[in-house]
Design a protein that fits this description.
- With 334 residues, the chain is α/β, with parallel strands linked by helices.
- It folds into 2 domains: 162 residues, no CATH class; 147 residues, NAD(P)-binding Rossmann-like Domain (Rossmann fold, 3-Layer(aba) Sandwich), CATH 3.40.50.720.
- The protein has 10 helices and 17 strands.
- Helix 1 packs antiparallel against helix 4 and helix 5 packs across helix 10.
- The longest helix is centred in the last third of the chain and has 16 residues.
- The radius of gyration is 22 Å and the shape is elongated.
- It starts with a strand and ends in a 12-residue tail after the last helix.
Length: 334
Amino acid sequence: MRAPDPAGGEVAAQADDLEVLEQALSWLQSGQPVALVTVVRTWGSSPRPPGSLLAMNSAGQSAGSVSGGCVEETLLARYRDGEIAGPEPTWIDFGVERQEAARMGLPCGGRLELLVEHLADPEVIALLLRRLQQGEIVTRRVVLPDGAVSLERGEGGPDFQASGGEVIKTFGPAWQLLLIGNGIIARHLASMARQLDYRVTICDPRNTFVDTQPLADVHYSRAMPDDAVRALIDSSRTAIVTLAHDPRQDDLGLSAALESNAFYVGALGSKRSAEARHKRLASLGYGPEQLARIHGPAGLYIGSKRPAEIALSILAEITAVRNRVAQQPAATAT
């Protein structure tokens, strides 16, 4: 399931979630009882984060994962025996002692809290998949204890939240990273971001910065930076970082980024260059609230000096902002 992306190629929706939803819909349409399991909370060591999904049917088949081993087997057995997933959601708490960890599939001991829902209406899942196919961000809200489900238009922010009697999971296109300016830091940052499943674009129209050994699974654009930003379908799931060391390129990208709803806008450079950049953008009419969106110098302070360390600090800050974790300003200077 793909949505078109004018910046080049396609924007993939989150593959693991789609596989689970598509399989659940297939089972529902064939008349099989289906349950959806969601990881709500974890404590200690757990290989799957909150928001992870598992679909299972009464025949003992499953798609997705909530742990990494025997938890799934136990869930399938209990579902086949009719112990869980009645008309109302079921809460299951898997508490695992260290000595039981290997048997339960949790490597170092831990605890999982799961929500198990009986899926009764295939049209709700079909509608969710159709909206994802159109490139939308969709929030699925489950209200407890009765399990009422609603689909709402999603926004940038955490993919999963559980509080106040609600379990909220946001589905949508893959998170994107747009890098303005090619070079060694962009190369490191792109490589690291791909490991976190970001769809990465490196934009640089300058002839002297054409990469002779392009990275696999990274899109390269020769568009002007402001055009590359404006070409984004939905920038609420996009981080934009300027790395060009050329104010003509960086400012074009930043000016367009400040007019977008990108969840992160960062700019490489020293504190002195950041001050000069703010003055230039202010002279173009950007106000204090807009300029405050720029993370500059970009990155968390980790004493970074080498290109790979700077890239790591920037990706760490992007991750913190995406997860809405407050951080101190960085001091990564170049």
